[in-house]
Amino acid sequence: MSLTPLNPDEKVPSGLSPSELRRARQREDARRAILDATEALLLEAGGEAFGVRALAARCGYTAPTIYHYFGDKDGLIDALLEEHFARLLAEVRTVPQGDDPLENLRGMLRTYLGFAERNPTFYRVILAGRDEPDRSPPSVEATVELMMQPWEDLRAAGRLEGVDTEAASQSLWALIHGLTALRVARPDHEWAPDLTEIAVEAMLRGLVREKADVGAETRRGRMRA
Q1: Binning pLDDT at 50, 70 and 90, where does residue 222 land?
Q2: Distance, CA of 221 to CA of 80 (rounded, Å)
Q3: Count of C-beta atoms within a 10 Å radius of residue 17
């Protein structure tokens, strides 16, 4: 089992004695060095698995020290995911929420895609192989829950085109994930600059009804009744 991932914004506690402060900073420096080396190795390996021996050589800490701080390789990936998703979650939470859940969803998607573009190693960490892929750090779960809310609102408003919220959200996630992963894997290819926007909008038009369409259908139903 991994230890609690280090919050990227967490500071060394105040009120410590000089020796306690020194040890706390040493622990923080060790964790940071190990995580930075892990991310560098993942980037070099294209998201494939890496060995603790290679990590120890890169970061300068022994394997027992690495296991002490993170438990196992999944613990390392969890810690990196938590760091990245904690920052992403903070940005998604700033997206203004209006009356139209489709526009709310679009705003969250723009924020997500912008974050992925500014943080090229983000997807390398997501793609990293893990022994327990179903185990998710807290910020990952919180981000997913937050970005699922517009889908729930669209379902409640009768605006999903014959699909449930899970199928709709997974379809869009698969599209975004695939497009972004392709850009990461093939940065040399001349991708159309608006490729992602075109693909996302096309899928949204297939999955979601506009508000006006729902209103017109409701009025027609009332007239037939």
Answers
A1: very low
A2: 52
A3: 8
Q: Which amino acid is at 13?
A: P
Tell me the pLDDT band of 212, cut-offs 50, 70 and 90: low
Q: Which of 127, 125, 36, 137 is nearest to 82 (CA)?
A: 137
**Vertex 206, ends 201 and 208: CA angle to 5°?**
85
pLDDT value for 4: 40
Between 79 and 50, the more confident residue is 79
Residue at 94: amino acid letter? T
SS3 126: helix
C-alpha angle with apex 193: 105 to 169, nearest 5 degrees?
25
How far is residue 144 CA from its own chain's centroid?
Answer: 8
Q: How many CB atoms lie within 10 A of CB 224?
A: 6
- Cα separation, 161 vs 100, in Å, equals 16
User: If pLDDT is split at 50, 70 and 90, which confidence band does 51 have?
Assistant: confident
Q: Which residues contact 13 (CB under 8 A, 6 or more apart)?
A: 24
Positive or negative torsion for Cα 83, 153, 204, 210: negative
Amino acid 190: pLDDT: 93
> What number of other Cβ atoms are within 10 A of residue 4's Cβ?
11
